[in-house]
Design a protein that fits this description.
14 strands, mainly alpha, about 400 residues, Glycosyltransferase, 3-stranded antiparallel β-sheet, single chain
Length: about 400
Amino acid sequence: MTSRTALRTALQGWRDRVRAELFDSLLPFWERHGVDREHGGYHDHLDLDGTRFDDKKHIGLQAQALWFWSRLVSEVERRPEWISAARSGVHLLTGPARRADGRMFAVLTRDGRGAAIASSPRNDLFTANALAEWARASGTAEDLEVARKALETALSVARASQVVDAERLPAAIPTSSLDTLTLAFDALDSYELASPGYVADHERFWRSRLALHMRPEFDLVLENVAVDGSVISGPEGRLVCPGRWLVAARQMFERAASSGDQRGVDVALSAMESALDFGWDGDDGGLYLYLDRDGFSPVQIEWSRKLAWVHSAALLATLSAYAATQSMRWLERFEQVADYTFAHFPDPAHGDWFASLDRRNRVSQRFKSGPRKGGFSTARTLLRCDQLLGDLVERMK
């Protein structure tokens, strides 16, 4: 049996590693290269060493960056440079990034002109999440009201997006997307911290929708289901994303644990374990990006890649489960993921993490930020893991 002293030493060792990655690698990289001090917002396209290779700004990435700088201000330290970095994103997202109809552009030029729009609610949800976290950091009623309006718009768009295709196309199936659900829960979580109690009615709807994706008959969580809960045929309906599966299971676990719902806790923990078992590459380690429920080859060309955000999701899910249950099997799961993640994704030469590995764990894209990847899903995970590990170590004194 693991002694208390040895366990505390192991947990402190993991915390030291997490803090080193966050505060000595990721954060310095983004402080040096990420903030656009001339036009506001953040630089999206950064090469291996931080060199910019494009000037466009993708709103989802801008919002993720704002969330992280705001969370640092809220929970770590009110450093002037972090507040300034956050304000840079606020000005962009509440100004040029917002369209006349209240929704968000998808892409801006560096100087803030709209360059692309998207029907997906992703940018709206990312923005609502970020502005809620900023409202918490600033503590002003004005910022909270801006965040509330952004949240209401985003959730309305997210609900409508799941049926709009069916209204236009007779053969289209109204579809619920797990991606949309997890982003909605992120936004609700941030707003709940900023203004407790407001989101309860929204929670009920999105929880009911999440339940449609939890499929005990398959022992997995589906990426796409019909809004009536029926299973969709074909590759779209069989698609599984282990990373998003883990995010959804963790969100479900945290809600069940906070409300004393033991059955919900058990279902969520089982879903986490199934995601790790189903998604893990038994030959080369790591979690696949996509898999097919029935074992067919996924139609997504990138299906076998190992992505940093997927492994970040696994780190947080397994550590959250261990912190709540104190079960050694969850610490072992965390260590399995952590051993792989810290061995393959960090870039000790330049800072930050690589986004993508191929199936054999070789770096497949060297940039640190691009149209679909910034540094902040990893940074967010490391910050939360640091807090969880710090609490665990403190409780063992």
